[in-house]
Amino acid sequence: MSMDPSDINSWVQSYGGPQLRTFDKTINVSTNVYTNSSGNAAGTANYYNSSTSSTSTNHRFEYTGANNNVYNGYYDGGISSGSIMYPQDIVDTMEDIVRRTVDVIEGRYTNRSQSHYVCHTSCHTSCHTSRGRR
With a threshold of 0.70, does the pTM exceed it? Predict the structure, then answer.
């Protein structure tokens, strides 16, 4: 069977692209905080008489719209028209595909942040009085 680099390139794209499109991961970040603490000794935070508040946020990371051409040209450089393709060329091509997949997926991850503001009992009695907020 005779193969050409364009055959390998086509194979890499037509099999790699659909697999990459399966990458779709959602993570949940949840936070629990103590609120409305009272009865703490000065300078300590023992959360005496505290209640707890919780929040969570989902973060989705995906590449379900990846094009097959993400893998264009990702085959071993030892593969050329009219030459013998060795098993190591296939191994090297698979390594290139895996490396490209990892790079593309890592590129989909971005930094995310969440802000949480805790309001203590002392805040309600001193900041939210009829005198207004401080």
Answer: no
Per DSSP (E only), the strands in the chain are 24-35, 51-62
Q: Read off the DSSP letter of residue 75.
A: S
Q: Note the pLDDT tens digit of each residue in 74-90.
A: 989 888 888 888 889 98
DSSP state for residue 118 in the 8-state scheme? -
Q: How far apart (Å, rounded) are the C-alpha atoms in residues 37 and 40?
A: 7
Count of Cβ atoms closer than 10 Å to residue 93 Cβ: 21
55, β-bridge pairs: 31
29 three-state secondary structure: strand
Which residue bears the tokens 């264009």?
A: 72
Give the span between the Cα atoms of 21 and 65, in whole angstroms.
Answer: 6
Residue 16's CB is within 10 A of a number of other CB atoms, namely 22
